[in-house]
Amino acid sequence: MMEPLVDRPGPQIGRSSLGERMASCCSYRTLQAWLPILTWLPKYRLSWLQMDLIAGLTVGLTTVPQALAYAEVAGLPVQYGLYSAFMGGFIYTFLGTSKDVTLGPTAIMSLLCASYVGGDPVRAVLLTLLCGTIQTAMALLRLGFLLDFISFPVIKGFTCAAAVTIGFGQVKNVLGLKDIPHEFFLQVYYTFYRIPETRIGDVVLGLLCLYLLVMLQWMKSTLEPPSEQDTPLTRAAHSLVWGIATVRNALVVVAASFVAFSWNAFGSPVFTITGKTSQGLPPFRAPPLSETTPNGTSISFGEIVEDFGGGLAVIPFMGVLESIAIAKAFASQNDYRIDANQELFAIGLTNIMGSFVSAYPVTGSFGRTAVNSQTGVCTPAGGIVTGVVVLLSLAFLMPAFYYIPKASLAAVIICAVVPMVDYRVVIQFWRIRKLDLVPFLTTFLLSFWEVQYGIVGGVVVSGLMLLYNVARPSIKVCDHGVLVMELDSGLSFPSTEYLNTVLYTQALQASPPRSVVLDCHHVNTVDYTVVNELRDLLRQFKLRGVGLIFSGLQYSVLEVLLAADLPDLRHTASVEAALTILSGNTQ
After folding, report:
1. Which pLDDT value is given to residue 26?
2. Are 206 and 65 in the same domain?
3. Residues with Cβ < 8 Å from 169, sequence gap 6 or more?
4. How many CA atoms lie within 13 A of 334 on its CB side?
5. How far is CA 343 from the centre of its chain?
6. Is the separation of the CB atoms in 450 and 115 below 8 Å?
7. Are 369 and 100 in contact, with CB atoms under 8 Å apart?
8. What SS3 state is found at 517?
9. Which of 471, 502, 531 is the last residue of a domain?
10. What is the average per-residue pLDDT within 391-408?
11. d(CA 373, CA 363)
12. Disulfide-capable partner of 415 in 206, 213, 468, 562 (CB 3.0 to 4.6 Å)?
């Protein structure tokens, strides 16, 4: 197993010469941080090679049918799914910090891509370049912390809505319907409206593929691990069943293609097939920065970027979020660490290089990463094998893809996205914190209107809830003859008005006015607005002949208050000391 990667060197405290700083920047440790392959490659073992080959081949056989299917979700010709599926394996081998993660097309990124490019391959490739550039710039500027502002309820709300949207969007292919609108609500309406036009062959094949995929997945999930008492024959049978269940997508698509080819050969084309696709490897060329429409109109780079609009924020962020979440989950499961900023850099460079081979935006795939981990991959080198499998498919198998039934690809997609609808998370939100249902439902419902509105709406609601907690900190009030008010969080300018209101209503407007001990041991920072408000409060307490004492001030906060030269500022190390002072004054 790959050992934990070294951490990126942090800043050194103290002075150092320019030569020492230059030497530190050019050190082998720094090079390892930017190229994690240098950490595990010198320790590579022959036994790891065997496991990486098996895992890479298995993931490759899973990737090919999924990539073809996800291109359909993105509204692009199926070959663009394969164009997007191989670059990540090569780039991530050098730059990735997780042994398990596989980069490539995913259901969510395909849905987002469809929302912004409208099935235009030229725009999809340009979007890939721009997303990669934004992600790489974020990594170099170490802006990964911005992702922390997208809360878990927002992510779950989006993924659940995306799963429903993607899954229902494939119903038309199972039914053999054509020319169904892409907008979700229109899609639902016209799918039911045109059910009488259903093609029986597509329905039968689609349902049969769904049944086989579900059964194979069930077999894999219920398969007991082999024990030491099992005979070699039993172990071999176990491995065979597990292998068949793991590459079920490829087997089902191949079988469905054979059925479609056979019917076509006998002159009975009863299935809707993929049809003609471009053959061979994609040319390596610079992505287009402008577009010429079929009627000869030229669309400039600026106009295309303007059309992308919020997609240039939504797609890069969601791509990074999805991949880093997957990397963290499997790093925790397999006991190693990842560098989130380096992961951001790896995804960004993958998208930049992918745009040179006509890829659309990619990210980490949970399903394929799970297959990679379960197959026993030892290093990111397994991605090279996966990439080679995809390249071989492009080079030699594209003519065979002509006969792939769309119903079989729809079955693959539906089975892939159904687990994303996590109803249990709603129960958890209800039990732990009911307010988390607000951003979850906001994101979930708005995503059916427009994907970007769902994410932005959820982030705005989460932000407002966060700001409300900052502006209305919890203040615990106890009466010991003197009021003791304990602040459960820090003080910043949004909370000053609320603190002022509490002190006035509880102490200054009481009859008679009451002294207060303000327990500040949780307060670790104050700003000018807070200091100015405290100055006024001290004056008001003095005018009414009562005391306001601060207790438990941290040194940094006390230093600021003393520097502000607040009149009549009194502070103690503990609440008890403050109560003693005020009790003595009262007596």
Report:
1. 60
2. yes
3. 73, 182, 184, 187
4. 28
5. 12
6. yes
7. yes
8. strand
9. 471
10. 88
11. 17
12. 213
* Same domain, yes or no: 458 and 411: no
Indicate if 451 and 580 belong to the same structural domain: no
User: Which two tokens mark 541?
Assistant: 């307490």
- Backbone phi, then psi, for 550, in 5-degree steps? -95, 135
Residue 337: inside a domain: yes
Instruction: Answer whether residue 3 shows pLDDT above 80.
Output: no
Q: Does the residue 5 lie in any domain?
A: no
Residue reference for tokens 């001990």: 517
Residues 459 and 486 in one domain: no
Instruction: Identify the pLDDT of residue 266.
Output: 80
Pair (461, 490) in one structural domain: no
Q: Where are the alpha helices (DSSP H) in 120-247?
A: 121-140, 152-169, 171-175, 184-193, 200-222, 232-246
pLDDT score of 497 more than 80: yes
Half-sphere exposure of 381 toward its Cβ, with a 13 Å CA cutoff? 21
Domain that holds residue 576: 475-584
**CATH of residue 512:** 3.30.750.24
Tell me what the mean pLDDT of segment 526-549 comes to: 90
- Name the domain count of the chain: 3
Instruction: Examine the domain organization and report whether 401 and 432 are in the same domain.
Output: no
What does the pLDDT read at residue 383? 93
Name the residue among 143, 211, 137 with its Cα closest to residue 174. 211
Furthest C-alpha separation in the chain? 107
For residue 16, tell me if it sits in a domain.
Answer: no
15 in a structural domain: no
Q: How far apart (Å, rounded) are the C-alpha atoms in residues 412 and 70?
A: 9
Element (H, E) at 484: strand 483-487
Instruction: Find where tokens 């009863």 sit.
Output: 270
If DSSP codes are grouped into helix, strand and coil, which group holds residue 126? Answer: helix
Residues 554 and 530 reside in one and the same domain: yes
What confidence score (pLDDT) does residue 145 get? 79
Q: Which residues are CB-neighbours of 576 under 8 A, at least 6 positions away?
A: none
- pLDDT recorded at residue 132: 96
The residue whose two tokens read 């490659």 is 41
- 182 lies in the same domain as 312: yes
Share of the chain above pLDDT 70, in %: 95
- Say what the pLDDT of residue 304 is: 92
Sign of CA dihedral 180, 181, 186, 187: positive
> Which residue in this structure is represented by tokens 């194979």?
216
The two three-digit tokens of residue 40, written as one number: 């595990």
User: CA separation (Å) from 473 to 200, 463, 485, 496, 502?
Assistant: 62, 15, 12, 10, 11
Q: How confident is the model at residue 11 (pLDDT cuts 50, 70, 90)?
A: very low
Q: How confident is the model at residue 19 (pLDDT cuts 50, 70, 90)?
A: low
Four-CA torsion 404, 407, 409, 415, nearest 10 degrees:
-150
pTM listed for this prediction: 0.77
What are the pLDDT digits (tens) for 40-79? 999 999 889 988 998 899 888 888 888 988 998 898 998 9
